[in-house]
Specification:
Blueprint lengths: L4 H11 L3 H7 L6 E5 L20 E4 L9 H4 L3 E3 L7 H8 L7 E4 L6 H9 L5 E5 L6 H11 L4 E4 L13 E7 L20 H18 L3 E11 L8 H10 L2 E4 L10 E4 L6 E5 L9 E8 L15 E2 L3 H10 L5 E6 L2 E6 L3 H10 L2 E3 L2 E7 L2 E4 L15 E4 L1 H8 L12 E7 L2 E8 L4 E3 L13
Parallel strand pairs: 4-5, 4-7, 5-6, 7-8, 19-20
Antiparallel strand pairs: 1-2, 1-3, 6-16, 8-12, 9-12, 10-11, 11-12, 13-14, 14-15, 15-17, 17-18, 20-21, 21-22
Helix pairs in contact: 4-5, 7-8
Bound molecules: S-adenosylmethionine.
């Protein structure tokens, strides 16, 4: 792999990077790491050691076939590159997470940072995971649904749409689209697509994204900005751009010397940046910086609230409560689905729903069709499902048949809707009709590949 000379020269001049060690690291195997879901921590593989800057993540000795592990499909863990988990440090060192917070993950697909953030927030808080590119929303939705948190919703908006919510978010994570040089080792095609023109194109896009989003951050709110690029134009220079355009206070984070993170400062405003180089940290190239917003916006846009929610009927209420522990939850009808959210986030959910294009609310519970309640596929991943709901535990081979939507047999199942579980972790719904079993696992989620 020939790393572009422009990158090598910049790293040498600006950060005194040991070029031969940096280049050598690009010939080495990419570390594999998983982050466990605190709501259902389990993994079908043995661990090596812990990722030191995150509370719940581990390196694996080698890359297994995750697709063949039913626990992966149950949302018990997320396969995530280790450096990017540093967002946890940025969040926990700058935010009081015991309070109810409204958090935006502005560039969220496929959901690595969002699943991490959802686990750091309490139930009364609300995470808005936004993805502007519609074709990338389904993978984000699937990953967030599997994660099973009740505090997160998904939107599909352009950054400029967030001007409808001035002074609204307590925390904003902008993991910006970038030129991707930090992933040269991991993604074969990243190096082919790299060019100086693309770095400039990305930095202009980052400026636009940040300029559009910043008004939606509250006074004293925290901005966490990150990229997987090595280019100064997308990192330290972007921090300087932000400080010129907005009143922001750069935040210094604590790091441990053993982590191997390189602390940098931007040229003009001396903002603090945290760089991950693969020859110094066990992970891919990554950059992160944090800021506190000093001023509030003057404009308060008052849009008419359009009502997308209607009340649920008494029958729907009764049906829902058979499936889910309703403590502290509000229920509404959103199009055909009965949905829910924590009472503590009702105000925020309503405000967001009237301003943005919603792709997923915190809870989708199901639909009442005649006398039948059809549980929503997302509901299967919730820890709040009532004990009265029938569960059938199966082995890995039946689990994979179910997840591939192949025929499977369950000799002892009682009639009606029930959950299939593997090692007691929920995989999804099925309905036993007596003479046959209907598989309610969504077709768009099914495993397509046979991997051995
Ligand atoms: N945060 C994600 C995670 O941890 O899994 C990765 C995000 S990726 C680095 C950047 C995201 O920004 C992509 O999902 C991409 O679709 C989105 N994006 C692309 N162009 C954008 C734009 N103009 N405005 C906002 N987001 C954009």
């Amino acid at each position: 792999m020939k790393i572009p000379t422009q990158i090598i020269n910049q790293l040498k001049e600006n950060f005194s990077v040991d070029v031969s060690a940096f280049e050598l690291s690009h010939t080495q195997i990419v570390p594999v790491s998983v982050r466990l879901n605190p709501l259902k921590p389990a993994c079908g593989f043995g661990f090596d050691k812990q990722v030191p800057w995150t509370s719940n993540a581990y390196y694996l000795p080698e890359r297994p076939i995750f697709t063949n592990d039913p626990l992966f499909h149950a949302g018990c863990y997320y396969v995530q590159e280790a450096s990017s988990m540093f967002v946890e440090q940025a969040f926990t060192q700058t935010v009081d997470a015991s309070k109810p917070l409204i958090v935006l993950d502005a560039c969220a697909a496929p959901g690595g940072k969002s699943t991490l953030l959802a686990s750091l927030l309490n139930e009364e808080s609300l995470l808005v995971s936004n993805e502007v590119i519609s074709t990338r929303v389904p993978v984000l939705t699937h990953n967030m649904a599997k994660w099973g948190s009740i505090n997160s919703m998904i939107t599909n908006n352009d950054p400029q749409d967030f001007s409808r919510l001035p002074n609204f978010f307590d925390v904003m994570v902008v993991d910006a689209p970038c030129s991707g040089s930090g992933l040269f080792r991991k993604q074969d095609d990243a190096i082919e697509h790299w060019s100086e023109e693309n770095v400039n194109h990305c930095s202009l896009r980052q400026q636009r994204i940040l300029t559009d989003l910043l008004p939606a951050l509250k006074q004293d709110g925290i901005l966490i900005y990150s990229t997987c690029s090595y280019s100064v134009e997308e990192n330290e220079n972007m921090c300087d751009y932000l400080c010129e355009k907005f009143s922001l206070e750069p935040i210094k984070l604590k790091t441990s010397p053993e982590w191997g993170i390189t602390e940098t400062q931007s040229e003009k405003h001396k903002t603090f940046g945290y760089r991950f180089f693969p020859h110094l940290t066990q992970g891919e190239g990554f950059f992160l910086a944090c800021f506190k917003k000093i001023t509030a916006e003057e404009n308060t846009v008052n849009r008419n609230q359009h009502k997308l929610f209607t009340k649920i009927s008494a029958d729907e209420d009764a049906a829902v409560k058979k499936f889910i522990n309703a403590y502290n939850l509000d229920f509404v009808k959103f199009y055909d689905d009965i949905c829910g959210f924590h009472k503590g986030s009702t105000y925020a959910v309503n405000k967001i729903t009237s301003a943005l294009k919603i792709k997923k609310l915190p809870l989708h519970i199901g639909q009442l069709k005649g006398k039948d309640f059809i549980p929503h596929p997302y509901l299967a991943y919730q820890n709040r499902i009532n004990n009265g709901v029938t569960k059938v535990d199966i082995d890995a081979s039946v689990a994979l048949q179910y997840l591939r939507k192949q025929p499977f047999l369950l000799p002892d199942a009682t009639k009606g809707f029930a959950l299939l579980t593997y090692k007691d972790f929920n995989l999804g719904w099925f309905k036993n009709l007596g003479n046959r079993i209907n598989n309610y696992y969504p077709a768009e989620w099914r495993i397509l590949k046979e991997i051995f």
